[in-house]
Amino acid sequence: xxxxxxxxxxxxxxxxxxxxxxxxxxxxxxxxxxxxxxxxxxxxxxxxxxxxxxxxxxxxxxxxxxxxxxxxxxxxxxxxxxxxxxxxxxxxxxxxxxxxxxxxxxxxxxxxxxxxxxxxxxxxxxxxxxxxxxxxxxxxxxxxxxxxxxxxxxxxxxxxxxxxxxxxxxxxxxxxxxxxxxxxxxxxxxxxxxxxxxxxxxxxxxxxxxxxxxxxxxxxxxxxxxxxxxxxxxxxxxxxxxxxxxxxxxxxxxxxxxxxxxxxxxxxxxxxxxxxxxxxxxxxxxxxxxxxxxxxxxxx
Length: 300
Known about the structure:
Blueprint: H1 4-10, E1 18-24, H2 32-48, E2 53-55, H3 69-75, H4 83-95, E3 98-107, E4 110-119, E5 122-128, H5 136-139, E6 149-152, E7 155-159, H6 168-176, E8 181-186, H7 201-213, E9 216-221, E10 225-226, E11 229-230, E12 236-238, E13 244-246, E14 255-261, H8 265-269
Helix pairs in contact: 2-4
């Protein structure tokens, strides 16, 4: 069995370049048809500019600020059979791309704030938001699928949603399972104490998480004010070094934030010097290697 150092050199990963596009847009609560149409138009635009992976905001299909659970339930859809899934799947097939999108998911009587990963052949996998923010606790169930990593032709892809990125475990568990990229559909809002014009706290968290886990993080945030709730914009793409390679975008404009990365680069470059490699240096004699999760192996 290879040593960790040998594993760093020999673990295969895609070597080709990948263009990621994060769509910053404004979904409108209750306007399913319009939200789908606007998201498809932006996906088409991004694909036409060479994107191979497109990330959409949190709850793109439904909007975010629900009046009550009944409204959230009415705006949710089953996966993979709902109208947003059909439209996004057709778009992915038409352009031969991958799409990660935030979606209100209905599963029997349960509701989830979810993200889906779609490829040219259809639905690949689902992530359900683990850490619910504010009144989301009134509408949604906490996620029950863990932090899966999906192996695709363009790289190993994990997902997180908005408040999940405040928890370091979200990214660490993805990295330990071999993720190259974490897609983050999000609806960031202003944080108490944030000075006027200051960058969103979430952009700092994304940079820190990318650096401390040696993974690329692609965040697509929404814009606008919905039922009195303003959103931050500032979508960005962060390389495995922790430095942004695109964005942050503006706070209030429809934008496509685009960057070209090499998904396998982190596997070759995780060694910071002759002595240190951030995942391998963990003190697993002191704390559990997989943080007590059921994920079975690390890829460091």
